[in-house]
Amino acid sequence: MLKRMLPAFTLGAMLVAACTASTPQKGGELSTPVKNPPDKVEAPKPAKTLTLKLDDLKAYEVKETEAGKPVSFTLENGMKAWALRLPQPLPLATPAISNGRLFVGGGFGSYDFYCLDANTGEMIWKVTTTDDGPTGAVVSGDYVAYNTESCTLEVRLCSNGELVWGRWLGDPLMSQPAIAEGRVLMCWPTGYGGEQQEQNSQPDQDGDPVPQTQEMNGRNSAEAARIKHGGVKVEGKGSHALGCFDLKTGEVFWAQAVPGDCISAPVVEGGIVYAATLDGSLTQIELKSGKLLGQEKQNATSAPWVALRDGEQEAILSQRDTRTEVVDGKEKQIHYEGWRRFDKNSQTRGALRQSQQAEYLHRENVRANEYYGAQSKSAQDAGVGFATAPGAANAQQAGDNLGEDSIVGLWAFQGSRPMVHRGKLYNCLGNTVSGGDLSGDKLEWELTYRPERNERLLSPPAAAGGQLVFAGLDGAVFTIDAESGELKHAMKLNKSFVFQPAVVGGKIYLSTQDGWLVTIDTGDKALDGWSMWGGGPAHNGK
């Protein structure tokens, strides 16, 4: 970029019964708080409520070591692990695991992308990306795709890292791609507002020209010469585009305008592409034809999960509801968050459910986060040339909707994404997770992690072998039984985990916000099947 496992008595001490209050709400318009939501639904009472604190758990100290050299160690609970420090102390995205290999970018601001032995952490190959800030990797067959924060989509061979094709799209790119049916889906800023615009090479946010062969600051100029520019016809009107490309050749199939960058990534299921964008809108597009099925502002606060109910495919996502309430004699806007279903036209199917007060959606709480607050995010943004967020990021809208308005924070934002695993619906709102039937009418359990905290601590869970696997900003890594909500495995490290873990072959693969990869072998072979962010290349558990 030119600009820029534990003894039984310990588990019992950590997991205690508690009551969690739920207040039913309605989803309001993005900028219009509502005083008396008409579409209330009484939240079902959980059959069991639990609180998890892990206060008695000592954090394992991962020692500083030489960059690039994996170090093996044993955790307090006897589990074996290894850790690898990458050269720069940058936030890392979820690694992708495939055929015994681990694929990961060098972090927000890095120009490196790595292929490692997933069992040992030893280097297999490393390449220099054509621009900085590679996102989470997405693997399908012998192809690995990722985009750089600025400003390219790259597809490489898993076998040797060779660049298959790449395309310069725009700056900044704050979500990762998806792969389905031999196609790559990606979102980017267009800089246009009109219909059917032809996207050509544009200057970046500093006014510099698009990177060309000799303008890579000495970084991989040969590959930069092979990056395509322009020629993408965008249908519709919006600040961003969601495009579809051939995985093997890069051929452009279609591009549809959307009102913002994706939250986390596009999601593909049943021949439909689903995208929740940072402004809160939900867009659905036919994968093959590019036909727009629906696009509505819905206060979305997570990427959708797609499931079948009563024979019909529907999107389930978290939704913000801002209400005006009187606090200490003064009117104040209070954020709530719950989940809601949507049909294939992005229209609501039923009321907002399990709504709870969401202090973690308020800007001030996001900025004051003890583990990952405004100061460190500002420094990371400045490190890639963003003293302030560029207009193309629509950061103000994102801040209004999600409470997050930094570039690195939006690059890493995952939100309260629901999921369906083995026919049950699991909902994670902030630090509270619950399990129940797919209709939402019955809650079997509800667990709250560290209820005294008002900032979001947990990643969305990975689902593997009947367990939910979490990683936390506070260094906690734990799994819970999906049927009962009871704790199965727990540990702490002196690291901070931002992204969702990958879980394969009994191992939990973690990335930290300061440039470390950590792999924990639980010995629990049931923990398997979540090989990258969202579970698989289409980000819907497969």
Verbal overview:
- This protein is mostly beta strands.
- The protein has one domain (8-521): Methylamine Dehydrogenase, Chain H.
- A hairpin with a 2-residue loop joins strand 25 (305-309) and strand 26.
- The longest helix is centred in the last third of the chain and has 10 residues, at 374-383.
What is shown here, in short?
The chain is mostly beta strands and 542 residues long.
Q: Mind sketching the topology for me?
A:
Blueprint: H1 8-14, E1 15-17, E2 49-52, E3 59-60, E4 71-74, E5 80-85, E6 96-98, E7 101-105, E8 112-117, E9 123-128, E10 132-134, E11 138-140, E12 143-157, E13 163-170, E14 178-180, E15 183-189, E16 197-199, H2 221-224, E17 227-229, E18 232-234, E19 240-246, E20 252-258, E21 267-269, E22 272-276, E23 281-286, E24 292-297, E25 305-309, E26 312-327, E27 330-342, E28 353-357, H3 363-367, H4 374-383, H5 395-402, H6 407-412, E29 419-421, E30 424-429, E31 432-436, E32 443-449, E33 462-464, E34 467-471, E35 476-481, E36 487-493, E37 502-504, E38 507-511, E39 516-521
Parallel strand pairs: 2-32, 3-36, 13-17
Antiparallel strand pairs: 1-2, 4-5, 5-39, 6-7, 7-8, 8-9, 10-12, 11-12, 12-13, 14-15, 15-19, 16-18, 19-20, 21-22, 22-23, 23-24, 25-26, 26-27, 27-28, 29-30, 30-31, 31-32, 33-34, 34-35, 35-36, 37-38, 38-39
Descriptive terms for the model:
single chain; 542 residues; mainly beta; Methylamine Dehydrogenase, Chain H; six-stranded mixed sheet; five-stranded mixed sheet; 39 strands; 40% strand; globular; disordered N terminus
